[in-house]
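Readers of this paper often ask what the protein records in our data store actually look like. This encoding replaces a full spatial description with a residue-level series of whole-number codes. For reference, a complete record is included directly beneath this paragraph.
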Amino acid sequence: MLRLENIAKSYQSRRGTVRAIVDFSVTVDAGQFVAVQGPSGCGKTTLLLIAGGMLRPDQGQVWVDQTNLYQLTPGRRSSLRAAKIGFVFQQFHLIPYLSVLHNVLAPSMATGIPEARKHAMELLERFGLADRAAHFPGQLSTGERQRAALARALLSKPRLLLADEPTGNLDQKNGAAVLGCLAAFASAGGAVLLVTHDPRAAQYAGRVVRLAPAPSFPGILAVG
């Protein structure tokens, strides 16, 4: 479902070139939950942006469902992303002036989703948020906001979920609930790539890939 081949990405800073990712490859098949772990600053978020078609790598190729992502035009890449990829972020990115229901429905504004409202309510029920549908994000607990964000990511029935530190702001109970939802998505045939520094992820993921700064390049980060 997702294949990254020999990915590299660098940034320019005042101190020179910063290597965020160096020659990284990973494959995530349908039904797999892969966690990428590592300390802050080792390239995890960069990796996820590249995998989701939002940041072109300097080197390497990204395949999503047998399509070479960066050989597509920006418009076709956006369409593929909307149809097949769901994103879950640490900061939730809920729209503060929309209700929980309309936050979950937000993806349907960009692409047609059959019976979107019915499916959104089913997701809210599944995540214990049906009684919060008319509330605004500021009226939710941190755990509820993350569950709302996860429901939004699932609205379009994606085949691939990309999750960036989704448990970073959660307590142990809520973190376990989110990881359990990601594991259930994979068990149902979806593919999950999670980037996190949370050691609990290894209990839920089928495979763990570890990233670390490269010691041979002081001040320069690399993926290993």
User: Anything to note?
Assistant: Helices lie at 44-51, 74-84, 100-105, 116-126, 142-154, 172-187. Residues 214-224 have pLDDT under 50 and may be disordered.
